Amino acid sequence: MLLANQVALVRLLLQLCITNVHALLSALLVRMTVWMGVRPGPGPGQSQLTARQQLRGSRAEKRRDPDRVLVTSPRSVNYHFTRQCNYKCGFCFHTAKTSFVLPIEEAKRGLLLLKQAGMEKINFSGGEPFLHQRGEFLGEMVRYCKQELQLPSVSIVSNGSMIKEKWFQSYGEYLDILAVSCDSFDEDTNRTIGRAQGRKSHIENLQKVRDWCREYKVAFKINSVINTFNVHEDMTEHITALNPVRWKVFQCLLIEGENTGGNSLREAEKFVITEQDFQDFLDRHKSIECLVPESNQKMRDSYLILDEYMRFLDCRAGRKDPSKSILDVGVQEAIQFSGFDEKMFLKRGGKYVWSKADMKLEW
Ligand SMILES: C[S@@+](CC[C@H](N)C(=O)[O-])C[C@H]1O[C@@H](n2cnc3c(N)ncnc32)[C@H](O)[C@@H]1O
Ligand code: SF4
User: Fold this and answer.
1) What's the pTM value of the predicted model, to 2 decimals?
2) So where does this one cross the membrane (predicted)?
3) Which listed residue, 5, 143, 230, 280, has the most CB atoms within 10 A of its CB?
4) Looking at residue 5, what is its pLDDT?
């Protein structure tokens, strides 16, 4: 009798041990998943597509374009969280068609879903990203992505006109790259394009932001749209003096419903240049090593773009066709409608050293 009780007691103790070890191991596994950035299965709000549905979708997609690489991982994402802007660039292809901005907690939920799906780089764009809540909304997303989601790269594209030094003091440490758009080093040309507000000088502003980037250790980039008004300019001297880590040179692109066609807010036809004119501009600036050219074709399908509702925008047909929101159907389902071509993304040099910790910068 005594022996039977002792055996039962030992069995009970053993069982308790096993349960605890199991719980401990499970907790450890969850932590490791987060530390190592391993993707967990679909969470609440994420797609529950069966493997067969996913396979069927990818086969149909392959039939349409056999060379197409299907992505399931949104490695680098551009989130245009607002369409509002203080400038009026005549060629703008992301115009103020709505004034909607997600509440910050919903935006963060979407960013977490993207991180869980494999996002490594986020770029905040617009509209003008520093306009909403005077940059505080943007700052909180930048901090969240770097500090809490620990993304290797957090960047912004801005017209630069609304950035204050205080923003760098609060959020500069969380930001890897700041790109400021500048299409001309002639103030009149900037005004003609619409890249101006009132009497303020866009070029003086650009210089001020460049200096803050140096002071607050943020990598500085420049974006320029080549169009009929600046196509003959030689920007070599100015770009060399500003010394950006990257100078992205875009060929002006038309997008139906944004800057061309019936219900668009801009008519950008008069800004469009030929392939040859674009090539001549590139040839004139070939001494600049950090120049990264982007023709119309490269731009159309090599970006993963999220709009203000967190819908992927497919630009392949020359307009912006939205997917469902990742907040409603999850990343895996929405991304199938993004039009993103990973081959083109790699071809345009989309994967580069994008974390400031890995850049050898002379601040
Ligand atoms: C839509 S803007 C939003 C961010 C910010 N407002 C700015 O201008 O930098 C993002 C980038 O797209 C570029 N862009 C706008 N319209 C374009 C077009 N039609 N073709 C090529 N690039 C364009 C801008 O110059 C900018 O570098
Ligand atoms: S391209 Fe010009 S108009 Fe368009 S969002 Fe940027 S600054 Fe505003």
Assistant:
1) 0.81
2) none
3) 230
4) 57
